[in-house]
Write the structure tokens for this entry.
Amino acid sequence: MRDTVLIVDDQSMNRQILSDILKNDYKILDAADGAEALDLLSAKEPEIAVMLLDIVMPKMGGVEVLKRMDQDKMNDNFPIIVCSGEGSMDVLEQCFEYGISDFIRKPFDNEMILHRVKKLDALYKTRSETADKLKRAVAVMKNQNTILEKQAEKQKKDNNNIIDALGTIVEYRNTENHNHIKRVKAFTKSLAIHLKDEFPEYKLNDKKIEMITTASALHDIGKIMIPDEILFKPGKYTSEEFDYMKSHTIRGYDIIVQVADNWDKELMEYCKQIARSHHEKFDGRGYPENLKGDEIPIAAQIVSITDCFEALISESLYKKAYSFDVAFQMILNGDCGAFNPKLMEAFRNAREDFSKIANEDASDTDPKDVIEETNVDV
């Protein structure tokens, strides 16, 4: 069981400070230099939950420790936080190339240390726990594909099962809120019903609404192709990382195209539209194609709002939840980008439905004090 923090620092006072901060939540191992740390890792690696690593040390410095760990393929087994007064860009770049999860400059802030250690520990534990579930979900998907080929008369039912399985895979990659897809689907259905009733020019009907609702489960399917070091990165993305993250829209579209041959064509068209275009904005400032107005498929416009709203009211690794009222007003105010005015009217009228859906799965988390450095709108 990974329940131990390894503290590596040549200053005994620093080791004691970090130990005092963390000892109520973790077992503690410490090392006075890099060589001693590697010996402890050799003997105790399966127990390590988080490693706190200094850079400048005698005998063997932190960068060399990271290099040796990388050679032994240990850098992905648990989060590594560099805690150091050394902050040159060259050194930091080396550290991140070797897979560290975070950097904290000395002197330490006790509350920040504990918060980051616990958050990163929770992230890695979730990854580990969901690995088996992911394999089972993939097996379900393959099994459903076999059924689809052999039992054409059950095509519609099997299609929906496959979409649920693919959505489950995305859910297991989402360490922020394991009810995200469930609530996006519920919000999507409600908003689509209001849009159908209030704006008949979009030609929505019950069948199309059910398809759009089902297809919304795959809006982020492309994220299964995003590397962990980007998808789970604490703090803000670099411009290059954000560009790569945004590619989940195209990657999701490509995944659906590859598996869609035997699926209901209309349903798959909605899946493709939503996966590709749910981050487009009505004013043309979205991605990946900068579509504007009703160039954006109406299914993608609906999911763009419901996905954004659900993310706002959910706590994640990077932020606390906004209250329902604040999140609702943020959407109406355009704080999350421009949306179709007709959809905004339907959204306004769906408020009571949205409140019921949100309250059915409300957490006890205090939705205050949003944490800084959040990766938004991805």
